[in-house]
Amino acid sequence: MNSSLIMRNIGRFILLMGLQILVFNNIYLGGYITPCIYLLFIAMLPTNTGKITTLIISFGTGLIIDMFTNMAGFHTFACTAAGFLRTIWLDKIILHDNDEEIEIPSIRNGAYQQFAIYLFLLLLAFNLIYHTLLVFDMREILGILISALLSTIVTWILAILYQTIFIRDKKN
Predict the structure, then answer these.
(1) What is the CATH number of the domain that holds 130?
(2) Does residue 171 carry a pLDDT above 80?
(3) Could you identify which of 37, 78, 162, 168 might form a hypothetical disulfide with 129, taking C-beta atoms 3.0 to 4.6 angstroms apart as the criterion?
């Protein structure tokens, strides 16, 4: 990895974590929706990031959010699971049929639909795990599913907006 790519990832990490901690952690819409925009950092890790490195980064990212939200490891567990799923879905959805060399997965790399699906599935998996741990009562399965789906949709829209605003048109 070159130094400019490392600096862009550090900048993305600081921006997304700052937005999450300062803005989105204070939003809880209608009792169901909790945007988790920081997951975009995990989704946009370079494609050549190893599986173990992805898991360590995902674990650390979730741990930082847990420390700022005083949670009992919910973000850490759900982020680590999302990091694990990322390594599988990145190959199967984005890199599988793409002829282009993609360094960083994003909507600007020619695979808009594949990235949108990949990101939605990653966010949905995270939110299902996170909201299940948060409620931890299967009698509330409908509430868990509604919270997970609504949080996924809102986070997905915010992530697409972030990419539209902050990601340059050139190949990353």
Answers:
(1) 1.10.1760
(2) no
(3) 78
